[in-house]
Amino acid sequence: TKTGIALLYDEVSENAYDIRLKLTKEVLTIQKQDVVCVSGSDHSANHRTVTLRRQPVGGLGLSIKGGAEHKVPVVISKIFKDQAAEQTGMLFIGDAIIQVNGINVESATHEEVVHLLRNAGDEVTITVQYLREAPSFLKLPLGSPGPSSDHSSGTSSPLFDSGLHLNGNSTNTAPSSPSSPIANEPKYEKRWLDTLSVPLSMARISRYKTGTDKLRSNAFEVLALDGVSTGILQFYTAQESADWLRAMSTNISDLTLQNMKMANKCCSPSDQVIHMGWVNERLEGTDSSQLYKFKFLALKGSSFYIFSTPPVSTLDWVRAEKVYNLCEVLFKIHKLWLADDCWLQANLYLGIHQDFDLEDQRPYCFSVMVGHGKSHYFNVELGSELAMWEKSFQRAIFLEVQRTGSKTYMCSWQGDTLCFTVDFALGFTCFDSKTKNVLWRFKFSQLKGSSDDGKTRVKLLFQNLDTKQIETKELEFQDLTAVLHCIHSFIAAKVASVDPVFIDSQSIARKYMYSN
């Protein structure tokens, strides 16, 4: 369990309010301070009417801030120890003054309320209501039961803080009896109360303004599976923001892992979920301000799934927006800090150097290239998530290659219909589709390079083991990209089976994580 003070930012009013966060393994709870009745009467604590007796030394014993000119009510900003306001036991820092001696002051300016209180005589009756969402610019100390080191109390407010602990215009010079709670009157306390609970299972986090590349400063939003949002949680320092982001992400990841284990109990060994989670997908070819959209990705069995909402039952897997065979996709990391993209040695064999001309300001991005030259471009919130997706794609693809064993594609050359097979054990084989006669066969290690026209035609360069000469084989495919990705997947899986340490050494995201 983790607790701490933060701010809840309102984008409409552009104000921020003090809140308390309580994080457990499964739920994030937002708490706001309020005044509650703890004993005596059953009266509502929403409105409290209190009579203060002005004292010769200390006056009313309080200070106020705010006013209609600041678009906030006048609130009690200080209560002085052992003086009139404190002795009532019914007033608290953060109470908004509603009435003074029966006169409504909800729309009054600061000076009007000061004047009214100073000239109200020795006995002043005020009606107050605790302002649960006091804007942070008031700089009200959180007070009990807040933390010992309040963020708010150490900073001065741009608003004038009027002290009413000095004597006003008193008509009676004799000392008056101090204000004190009357027997059987209700007793009040200021407490943190739960106002919103957000389940973390399948929840998602965003540090960006909706759909844009604009990063919020020390702030993020948590959205539950059902769409309920925490609102924008703002933190006082970058370190606090990072700590809370990591803590929440860890809990969400742990719950996702539990959900995967539950889902895998209902799946065959060849159809297990390897990894799943939320990402942002960059929208291509749109003129709108919405550059990104939340997507839920899953690596399961032989397929890579893209959902708009997470699958929560076995029936939900059929409603994916897109499904691709894992052998025919290519995972690629994109970011400014990458000097060289060399996920696997197979890139060098095939000369796959497709780059994205995207002016993307987000730091943790990857693409998944699919058939017919198409691709999906994704972003995640943390470097650790990027490293996990890289590792999971490798694992899922390698498992699928080993399960599949081989894949065969129809192709043609010079008018003949042929079949091209990529086999994990044998390498590459080309045979006539009608007679099944093998035309040529090469091992993976004999592939020395390739080139293509970016459309349908590819040249594969093999070294003859006997003559050491390079032999060029040209073929045409309906979906050349899928075939090239499949060759890449099989070579990568072959390298992994022979030298797994090499594969780990090629992990771009994990290298980045360790260096930081």
Compile the SSE list and pairings.
Elements: E1 2-10, E2 15-23, E3 27-39, E4 48-53, E5 62-67, E6 72-79, H1 84-88, E7 95-100, E8 103-104, H2 110-118, E9 123-130, E10 162-163, E11 187-199, E12 204-206, E13 219-223, E14 229-234, H3 238-265, E15 273-282, E16 292-300, E17 303-307, E18 322-325, E19 330-334, H4 346-350, E20 365-369, E21 375-379, H5 383-404, E22 406-413, E23 416-423, E24 427-432, E25 438-442, E26 447-452, E27 457-463, E28 470-476, H6 480-498, H7 500-505, H8 508-515
Helix pairs in contact: 5-6, 5-8
Task: Provide a descriptive summary of the structure in words.
The protein has helices spanning 84-88, 110-118, 238-265, 346-350, 383-404, 480-498, 500-505, 508-515; strands at residues 2-10, 15-23, 27-39, 48-53, 62-67, 72-79, 95-100, 103-104, 123-130, 162-163, 187-199, 204-206, 219-223, 229-234, 273-282, 292-300, 303-307, 322-325, 330-334, 365-369, 375-379, 406-413, 416-423, 427-432, 438-442, 447-452, 457-463, 470-476. The chain is α+β, with helices and mostly antiparallel strands. The strands form 6 sheets. It has a 7-stranded antiparallel sheet with strand order 11-3-2-1-14-13-12, covered by helices on one side. The longest helix is centred in the middle third of the chain and has 28 residues, at 238-265. The chain is rod-shaped, with a radius of gyration of 34 Å. It contains 8 helices and 28 strands. Among the domains are: 2-38 and 191-197, no CATH class; 47-134, Roll (Pdz3 Domain); 267-343 and 358-391, Roll (PH-domain like), CATH 2.30.29.30; 405-504, PH-domain like (Roll). Its main location: cytoplasm.
